[in-house]
Write a structure and sequence with these properties.
With about 240 residues, the chain is of the alpha/beta class. Helices cover about 40% and strands about 15% of the residues. It has 8 helices and 6 strands. It has a 6-stranded parallel sheet with strand order 3-4-2-1-5-6, with helices on both faces. Strand 3, helix 5 (about 105-120) and strand 4 (about 125-135) form a beta-alpha-beta unit. Helix 2 runs parallel beside helix 3 (about 70-85). The chain binds 3-methylbut-3-enyl trihydrogen diphosphate (2 copies) and magnesium ion. One 3-methylbut-3-enyl trihydrogen diphosphate binds near residues 16 and 63. One 3-methylbut-3-enyl trihydrogen diphosphate (IPE) binds near residues 15 and 63.
Length: about 240
């Protein structure tokens, strides 16, 4: 077994649900359902490998522009998910978090999210963070606005804005930067995910659609990560 000694945080862009379904002549919603079922398996595996944070891109701010029917399906699945599957994760000592623009979500979903965060806040196992209605540019803009207000009110001076203090104004303020970013589903792009946070993250692109992604592929990514040299702009010692 590949032990993830040096991997604290893995972020995943869970892509390829729709194409997975279309290839099987199923509606896209079937792919989303299958994709939602995958989360538990991969979260358990990450926890088993000693990973401390897993951040999953479930719905982007841009995904609101999909046909209403698909958005409704996704919100329905989310609702179901918040009520059932996450209970089991709570029993496994998982701490649940959400990042994104909550105002866009319906009140009942927002309430379920807040309740889950409260209930699991003291769990000491894996922190499972869902990016829902999340857009990284929007996240950065809200942080810039926060900083601007602080400066305007004289609470801080311009020079107090640095990498550390700015990071603390993002949704991910108490989450370390990802060591690994995986995008499933074959596309090689970031799609507005954690732009600030992935400055020195190791990137992995998998052709496997998210519904087919397996624990052993996660292990293989970690093995690949362990062979990479992270230089952070310096030269090898
Ligand atoms: C990812 O799968 C899930 C969401 C974006 C909500 P997609 O729905 O983007 O699946 P593809 O990329 O069309 O296959
Ligand atoms: C990114 O996938 C968002 C999520 C996986 C939630 P998309 O399918 O929305 O990204 P694009 O449209 O291919 O860039
Ligand atoms: Mg997609």
């Amino acid at each position: 077994m590949q032990k993830a000694e040096s991997v604290t945080h893995i972020a995943i862009i869970m892509d390829g649900n729709g194409r997975w379904a279309q290839k099987r002549l199923l509606p896209r919603s079937a792919g989303h359902r299958k994709g939602a079922e995958k989360v538990k398996e991969i979260a358990k595996e990450a926890d088993r490998l000693g990973v401390k944070f897993l951040t999953l891109y479930a719905f982007s701010t841009e995904n609101w522009q999909r046909p209403k029917e698909e958005v409704d399906t996704l919100m329905g699945l989310l609702r179901e998910y918040l009520k059932s599957d996450l209970k089991e994760l709570h029993e496994n000592n998982v701490r649940i978090r959400f990042i994104g623009e909550r105002d866009m979500l319906s009140a009942d979903i927002r309430q379920s999210m807040a309740a889950l965060e409260r209930q699991t806040a003291k769990n000491g196992g894996l922190t499972l963070c869902f990016a829902i209605s999340y857009g990284s540019r929007q996240e950065i803009i809200q942080a810039v606005r926060k900083a601007a207000v602080l400066v305007k009110n004289g609470d801080i001076s311009e020079s107090d804005i640095d990498i550390k203090s700015f990071s603390a104004m993002l949704y991910t303020k108490d989450i370390p930067e990802p060591d690994i970013l995986i995008r499933t589903g074959g596309e090689k792009r970031i799609s507005n995910y954690l732009l600030w946070q992935i400055a020195y993250t190791e990137l992995f692109f998998s052709d496997t659609p998210w519904p087919d992604f397996e624990a052993k592929e996660l292990e293989a990514v970690i093995a690949g990560f362990n062979t990479r040299e992270r230089r952070y702009g310096k030269v090898q010692a």
